[in-house]
Amino acid sequence: MKLLSLLILTLFLVSCGATVAVDYDQQVDFSKYTTYNYFPNIDSGLNGLDDKRIMQITDSLLQQRGFLKSETPQVYINFYARESISNSRNTIGIGIGSGGGNVGVGVSGGIPIGGKILNQQLTMDFIDVENDDLVWQAIADGEMKERATPQQKEGYYVSIIQKIVARYPPDNK
């Protein structure tokens, strides 16, 4: 049941439209990269629980695609986030109006509902270990509730990282 609810939540979040932009070195042969690990000193700006979620989800998705996590990787993965909080764009409208003849007067306003929104820009870098060069980068913009539950956070990260990993390796032929 937990898996089903996580799947439904993931589908809902995927439809909410996080955007992913990718940049990469066009001179690099990405087929030579088969092993990865995380940059030794990740300073993501996130809490330890979110770091752990991101790493577990990334591991699962990359390993499904045939990449191996290794102590002597060809690529280091680094990630970091920038976050800001905004008010929900959902409102309930209230209005008062009157009119007579050809004249009308109205006053209206919106009451925000749904709480605050966490806007997050998650950047994921793939760094060639041998040359210490950035070879691929994805930047994902998304949003979730400020007070999201652990299940909502996991669903959010699954949807974002799926979109990121789907764009790696680039088709630069």
Give an account of the 3D structure.
By secondary structure, this protein is an alpha/beta fold. 27% of the residues lie in helices and 41% in strands. The chain contains 3 helices and 8 strands. 16% of the residues are buried. Mean pLDDT is 84; it is low at 9-15.
Distance between the termini: 43 Å
- Major β-sheet annotation: 6 strands, mixed
- The residue-averaged pLDDT reads 84
Strand arrangement in the largest pleated sheet: 1-8-7-4-2-3
Portion of residues in beta strands equals 35-45%
* Class by SSE composition: alpha/beta
- Tell how many strands the DSSP assignment holds: 8
> What is Rg?
21 Å
Question: Please, how many domains?
Answer: 1
Summarize the helix and strand pattern as letters. Answer: HEEHEEEEEEH
CATH-derived architecture: 2-Layer Sandwich
> What would you call the shape?
elongated
The helicity comes to 25-40%
Question: Which stretches are low in confidence, meaning pLDDT under 50 for 5 or more residues running?
Answer: 9-15
Q: What fold name stands as the CATH topology?
A: Double Stranded RNA Binding Domain
The number of distinct helices, counting runs of at least 4 residues, comes to 3
CATH C-level: Alpha Beta
Task: Provide a compact summary of the structure.
The chain has 173 residues and is α/β, with parallel strands linked by helices. The chain is 27% helix and 41% strand.
